[in-house]
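Pasting as-is:
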Amino acid sequence: MTFLIQGLGTAIPERSMTQELAAEHSVEMWGETHGRAGVVRALYRRSGVKRRHSVLIEPADDPLIIHQSFYDRSVGTLDRGPTTSQRMQRYEVESIRLGTRSCTVALESAGIAASEITHLVTVSCSGFSAPGLDIGLIEKLGLNREVTRTNVGFMGCHGAFNGLRVAKAYAESDPEACVLLCCVEICSLHQQYTGDAQQIVANALFSDGSAAVVGRASEKGAWQLRSQRSLVLEETLDHMTWRVGDHGFEMSLSPQVPDIIGEHLRSWVEGWLRPFGLSVEQIPTWAIHPGGPRILSACTAALGIDDAHADISREVLSQNGNMSSPTILFILDQLRKRQAPLPCVALAFGPGLTIEAALWI
């Protein structure tokens, strides 16, 4: 018996922006103040993102203007934008709204009533509150008030893998368990007024989204979670970080990350697959978290697989940006809808520097 996906739902904010508009908006808001207008435009252009969704975008008559009232125009290089407290107040409201939408879709696709959920796993790294997302989902979805709850917090882009590990453990330990996993990130709350290139890259990549999975233990059916594995690479603690600052959460992302991942990935994946009688060449489908275009290219090159195996990852990045933890579930959703052949290996990366993997059969 292992964890089987019975329903999967995704949700994005109603309004979006093209990457070109996002770049010009950033230049207007703070890029010119820091003398980085050219750098902003260049890094946004190279991001692999064409469109992103944000809860902060408000209705506007002119489609060529991003209208939002959360961020004010910078008044100088010392202006850092809204405080972390202000950002968290908005997160508390928006995370529940977006999470409720993805969970509703997942429950409907599974054909399961909210009252049947026995275990709730929530995942988020873009905000904190208590009572938080888990309690909000109980209220909005009408979940049983005795539902068992676990929150996976601040683990970054691979957070869905950690949430799936919890969901799998619940399902396998209790044949009657029906688990709801919900990943929500409101990354647009953490735009930084900065001249630092790594922070500009984060501004260019990240966006808002939510994804939810409903599952039970089963021995039959496609998309069973067969195995997971995790690796924290040595001497990489400063290569990817996500820290709480006074004005939002601040990310650092070393340009060496793709090369480091590429150096270790193939041998580690091969060693993990071998006990299942599988090799890299025998995996027909790959779901790779799109941390950026270079990470995707580094993964396919290191694994020795056709670059086309990352096409859906690139598609999700292009149309949605990097939504952090929900992103891999958006990719799995597309693979399931297109009836991609199994087995499938999913990969994601996060602070540590950490590699997370999952094998779906």
